Amino acid sequence: MRKWTIFAALASAAALAAVQALCQAPDFSQAEKQFAQRCEGCHGEGGEAGDRAPALINSRSLRSRNESQIRDLIKNGTPGGMPAFALAEPELQSLAAWVHSRNLSAYNTRPGGDAAAGEQFFFGGGQCSMCHMIQGRGKANGPDLSDVGLKSTVSEIASALENPTAQMGMHTTASCPSWAFCPDEAWAVVQVRLRNGSALRGFARNRAEHDLQLQTFDGRIHVLTDTDYEEITRERQSYMPTLKATASERQDLLAYLSSLAGISPGPLSNETEPISRESIQAVTTPKQGEWPTYNGVPGGNRYSSLDQINTTNVSRLQLQWVHSLNGAGLETTPLVSDGVMYVTAPGQVCALDSQTGREIWCYAGLAGGRGGSSPANRGVALLGDRVFYATGDAHLICLNRLTGAVMWDVNMPVTPGAFSASSAPLVVGDLVISGIAGGDGPLRGFLAAYKATTGQLAWRFWTIPQPGEPGSETWTGNAIATGGGATWLTGSYDVETDTLYWAVGNPFPATNGDQRQGTNLYTNCVLALDPKTGRLRWHYQFTPHDLHDWDATEPLVLVDTMYRGRDRKLLLQANRNGFVYVLDRTNGEFLLGKPFVRKVNWSSGIGADGKPLLLPANQPTKTGVKTCPSVRGATNWYSTSFHPGTKLFYVMAVEDCSIYTQSQRGGYEGYRVPSDSGLKYLRALNIATGEMVWEIPQLGPQEANYSGVL
Question: Which CATH number do you get for residue 228?
Answer without folding.
Answer: 2.30.30.100
